[in-house]
Design goal:
Layout (H helix, E strand, L loop, with lengths): L2 E7 L5 E3 L19 H10 L8 E5 L4 E4 L3 E9 L2 E3 L2 E2 L6 E3 L4 E4 L4 E9 L33 E4 L23 E8 L8 H9 L2 E7 L3 E5 L21 E6 L4 E3 L7 E3 L6 E4 L1 E5 L4 H5 L6 E6 L2 H23 L1
Helix pairs in contact: 1-4
Pfam family, one: CT_A_B
GO molecular function, one term: ATP binding
Protein name: Biotin-dependent carboxyltransferase
Length: 327
């Protein structure tokens, strides 16, 4: 007998995501996948799934669901209280949900993305090794389209390995805050900034703009950045931040016209003509996905040794999370 849930309301930008698809960015297909990889994995482990099973990623406002099968559900990441048949339940906790239950969610009070994991995982077909939805390419997810009212989402078979640790302790949850220091490595085109422009970029406080999604996060509120004077090379535009087209790494920061920095995230295009003045270190990419509009950021320059140490610390946090559920 097949298991599934029905989407009664899709929420603001709910999509099916997993660990993402690697190895195709050179062909223009970005990794996609959960914006907060740590919380996505925590949600799965809570319900006894493999940590990379597909989940629902909710942005700012959750969906409404009808469970058509008995299942276990957990919400991790942003603070978004699940409400099952009118009764509130805690986040970061495995919850048994009966077939026929109506599930909705409260206002997202802290953070920007919550992950709804359901035992068995969302069992849509894989595309290029991932079930993640990529909107610009219309691939992955449910038939390569945005989720909508009435969609029926198939569930896989539960592993049967539901853990006795039904609640994730505070020290293993993703820390959430309305202000975050984002660590960056100076980018390939750092030299295009003037000394004054570089000082301004790192000294000012920037706020997340309303144009913040899976493709990129735009920031505002800092002073305009000055670039080095130059004669545009052949093939580059006249904007002082323009370069001859080059590939973009995920996490790279460009500042069109020197006004509003944009961080490219997991659904970003793979190349273009804007100078990349810095790149967010991998350990801090999850934090960006948890920032709502008007949250504030300071960019902090680090060197390669510090970036590698931060990555090792992130991997240790994941190891601690897995060890908790393996105990």
């Amino acid at each position: 007998m097949s298991r599934h849930i029905t989407l009664l309301k899709p929420g603001l930008a709910t999509s099916i995501q997993d660990q993402g698809r690697q190895g195709y960015y050179h062909l223009g297909i970005p990794p996609s996948g959960a914006m907060d990889q740590y919380s996505f994995r925590a949600a799965n482990l809570l319900v006894g799934n493999p940590e990379t099973a597909a989940v629902l990623e909710c942005t700012l406002m959750g969906p409404e669901l009808r469970f058509d099968s008995d299942a276990v559900m957990a919400v991790a990441g942003a603070e978004m209280v699940p409400i099952i048949d009118g009764e509130k339940h805690p986040t970061h906790t495995a919850i048994a949900v009966k077939a026929g239950s109506h599930v909705r969610f409260g206002v997202m009070t802290l953070g920007a993305r919550a992950y709804i994991a359901i035992s068995g995982g969302i069992a849509v077909p894989e595309v290029l090794g991932s079930r993640s939805f990529y909107n610009l390419g219309a691939i992955g997810g449910l038939d390569g389209k945005k989720l909508d009212t009435g969609d029926v989402l198939p569930l896989g078979e539960p592993s049967g390995s539901l853990h006795s640790h039904a609640e994730l302790p505070e020290n293993l949850r993703q820390p959430l805050a309305k202000q975050a220091d984002i660590r960056v490595l100076p980018g390939l085109y750092d030299h295009r900034l003037s000394d004054e422009g570089r000082e301004t970029f790192y000294a000012d406080s920037w706020k997340v703009a309303s144009e913040a999604d899976r493709i990129g996060y735009r920031y505002k509120g800092g002073r305009p950045l000055a670039f080095q004077p130059r004669q545009p090379p052949f093939g580059a535009g006249s904007d002082p931040s323009n370069i001859v087209d080059a590939p973009y790494p995920i996490g790279s920061i460009q500042v069109p016209a020197g006004v509003e920095p944009i961080i490219l995230h997991r659904d970003a295009v793979s190349g273009g003509g804007y100078a990349m003045i810095a790149t967010v270190i991998s350990a801090d990419m999850d934090l960006i996905g948890q920032m709502q509009p008007n949250y504030s950021t300071r960019f902090v320059a680090v060197d390669m040794a510090e970036a590698l140490a931060a990555r090792a610390a992130y991997q240790q946090r994941l190891a601690d999370l897995r060890a908790f559920f393996a105990a």
